[in-house]
Design brief:
This protein is α/β, with parallel strands linked by helices. The chain has three domains: about 30 residues, no CATH class; about 210 residues, 3-Layer(aba) Sandwich (Rossmann fold); about 160 residues, 2-Layer Sandwich (Ribosomal Protein S5, domain 2). Helix content is about 25%, strand content about 25%. It is built from eleven helices and 21 strands. A hairpin with a 5-residue loop joins strand 9 and strand 10. It is elongated and about 75 Å long.
């Protein structure tokens, strides 16, 4: 039989492209295993040829059903979370690492996955716990050099370099560490499975083995995973279903900012984001990222407006800067960074039609600060204010923020979780905020220090921001 590792399609004929999901190279030959003979009910599973790999079936020897009220003592063990040493990491995980859980940390090459986990291992080891770091990518000497650089040297941090699954599982079963780290799941190979290292069959077999040992011996385990070109976790999608937590370590290699997002979490929320800063000495957590995407100039400057974006449960200020110049080209130039190109073209047309701001024959440059992303529809109004400010030369006060989605009719539409954005703006000392007129606030009394200006359309918004005169908007020939 042939199975698709992406969607689970099965058939008796091989295809280069899955007829169900359309993915290439995912249909593989599959042989159904023979059912083992059972000698007695509740027989304990054997250890198999892969050493501790026979422990892959969680709880196979104790399949009796019991009332949930009788599991109080065992269930309470899950509340004793293991702190990683990074408060940002702990918050993303929901308070720490749950005993016996398997956490998959995926990210692009060179983004800092191994450095983050090595510093985590060093912090836990300095707390008096044993940590086992198994690497299939680097030798123990190479890991030691990096551990010395980031300050993770401790005698309770055990290093091992192997690409054999049986050896890795035997190390976990024999040492019984307080935390195990496997770097990475794509480099470990099992002799009981066919395929190349990193293939779907191998990744699935390695995941089953590691999860089985982690659950059987109650060992919290961190798995490092690679990603593909489109940013998804490499290997079969079943890998993400098998583990308990899936985290993605993201960032731009040109900047030092790194963000850790929980895509799946069985023990906590999936809308938390942890912020980190990467330098020569390793990874540092950023407890308050409010100043990362805002320029340090206190004086107002033309062509700049601040809005607030949502990163998980966090609301962070981000500055959008615009530059408008006369064009000497038949087709005016449009250059954007951190914002959506097609959306900027739409906003320029809306401003021309409904606010009489003529930018169609101008060279436009729109960018964010420090590589931030302002691609939410709620950033539309701030982008329009920045463009109009750059065109008229009228600066926007640094204590003014704008929120709103701009439609094709020129209407300023509501944005999600506006109160959370306004509370953060009030905390950072903002005084005036432009919000959609149709959006109501449940607890407006909590925003006493903010002057909330409700704007129904783009024309009124530009006038309220002070970038366009109330008596006369820009004519098409300006």
């Amino acid at each position: 039989m042939y199975l698709c590792s992406e969607c689970g399609w099965s058939g008796v004929k091989w295809y280069g492209r899955c007829p169900n999901c359309g993915q290439w190279g995912t249909v593989q030959e599959h042989h159904a295993p023979m059912a083992p003979a059972r000698t007695a009910a509740g027989r304990k599973p054997g250890m198999g040829s892969g050493g501790a790999a026979g422990l892959g079936t969680v709880g196979a020897g104790d399949a009796a059903a019991r009332p949930i009220t009788d599991l109080g003592g065992e269930a309470d063990e899950g509340d004793k979370r293991l702190a990683t040493g990074f408060s940002e990491f702990d918050r993303v995980l929901g308070g720490g690492i749950v005993p016996g859980s398997v956490v998959l940390v995926a990210g692009e090459p060179g983004i800092g996955k191994s450095t983050l986990l090595l510093e985590t291992a060093g912090s836990i080891a300095r707390g008096g716990r044993t940590v086992l770091y198994i690497s299939g990518e680097e030798s123990a000497a190479q890991i030691r050099l990096r551990a010395r650089r980031v300050g993770a040297m401790d005698e309770r941090l055990l290093l091992a370099s192997t690409t054999d699954l049986g050896s890795a599982l035997d190390l976990m079963a024999s040492h019984r560490p307080d935390l195990a780290i496997v770097d990475s799941v794509q480099t470990i190979m099992s002799g009981d499975s066919d395929g190349i290292s990193g293939g779907s069959a191998q990744v699935r077999e390695v995941a089953h083995g590691v999860i089985g040992v982690a659950k059987s011996f109650n060992i919290p385990t961190l798995l490092v995973g690679h990603v593909t070109k489109d940013g998804s976790v490499a290997g079969p999608r079943t890998l993400e279903h098998l583990v308990d937590v899936v985290c993605r370590f993201e960032g731009d290699s040109r900047t030092a900012l790194r963000m850790l997002r929980a895509v799946k979490n069985r023990f906590g929320p999936t809308d938390e984001v942890g912020c980190f800063d990467m330098d020569d000495a390793g990874i540092n957590e950023v407890a308050d990222p409010s100043g990362l995407f805002v320029s340090s100039f206190d004086a107002p400057s033309e062509g700049a407006c601040i809005t607030f974006t949502l990163e998980g449960r966090r609301s962070m200020p981000i500055e959008i800067q615009a530059l408008v110049t006369s064009s000497a080209l038949p087709a005016p130039r449009r250059a954007v960074n951190g914002v959506d190109y097609n959306r900027v073209a739409m906003l320029v047309a809306v401003m021309h039609k409904h606010a009489r701001v003529q930018l169609l024959n101008k060279d436009l440059y729109l960018s964010t600060i420090a590589g931030g992303s302002a691609k939410e529809p709620s950033c539309d109004l701030a982008a329009c204010v920045a463009l109009a400010s750059a065109a008229t030369g009228r600066p926007v006060p640094r204590t003014t923020a704008a929120f709103g989605e701009v439609s094709l009719t020129g209407e300023v539409r509501p944005v999600p979780r506006l109160e959370q954005r306004l509370l953060e703006a009030q905390r950072l000392g903002f005084r005036i905020v432009l919000v959609p007129a149709r959006q109501r606030l449940r607890k407006e009394e909590r925003l006493a220090s903010l002057r909330i200006v409700r704007v129904p359309a783009i024309r009124e918004a530009l006038t309220a921001a002070g970038v366009v005169s109330a008596a006369r908007h820009l004519s098409p020939g300006t």
